[in-house]
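[#protein-structures] MJ: dropping Cell division protein FtsX here for a structure pass
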Amino acid sequence: MPKTVDDFNKSRLRSSNITVVISISLVLFLVGLFGLILINAQKYSDYIKEQLVVEAYFDEYLDPRDSAKTLKFQEETFAKIKEQNYVKQAKYISKQQATVLAKKQLGIDADALFEEDIFPASVEVTLKPEFVDPAKIDDVVAQLKAIKGIKDVANDNKLTIDVYNNLNRILTWILAFSILFLIVAMVLINNSIRLKIFSKRFIIKTMQLVGAKRRFILMPFIKEALVLGLIGAFIGLLALGGIWYYFTNQIGTPFVQDTNQYVVLVLIVLFVGIFITVASTIFATWRFLRSNVDDLYYS
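AK: finished. structure tokens for Cell division protein FtsX:
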């Protein structure tokens, strides 16, 4: 039995909406995926920077026989180091621990080489990632040296600079690709919406010719775009969450590591989906509202 005109139009409209939703979902899925990559690349970068520790050695001008006074003095100095705004974590290493670490590094098990604890006590300082910067690290080292009770501070400047520059270079490229892909996503969604509106250009112009105001014509299209954007964003986020859940299970890491960053990413994906669909709908509809009837055949 042949379909009526209304049935055909409804089928075509339903097919058009499904196509737009699928396009939006796929594009937003990839946008979210790049966002996850950027978030975790930043976390990995911070983790690498935190491995570049600074070693602050205690001044040993006190009488070594007065161990209680020396220990109290070192505890006070250690407390001052932990209070510094650039310190993320500080670990106290006694002379005995320093000797054990030296043996491990040298691969020596016997005590023959070290008749006594010849290495000074120290504090292993882990800096906050933002302070592992060639422009700031020298100032941090100078501040550590200025703390009473610290004799010297060891830091591998060349390694710090190389790691910092390489990590920043990688993050810059990832950010650039993310921005580029976001622009591509906007273009793809915009084209899908424009094709959808293009198929209704005669309906838009007919409504205008019978006296409907532009705002009255725009509102149904905007509401539909809002719904399509929300559905597309929801499907894209659902697929992204499923992929991410599977991936984190495979590598044994928590599904959510930083709630705030993931919430921001979800909000960005939702905003991109809704904003682009609504904005594209307004511009595409407005174009046909301003055009002449003859132009509809050549648009």
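MJ: nice. The CA atoms of residues 34 and 179 lie 9 Å apart.
AK: one more thing. Strands lie at 54-58, 87-93, 122-127, 150-154.
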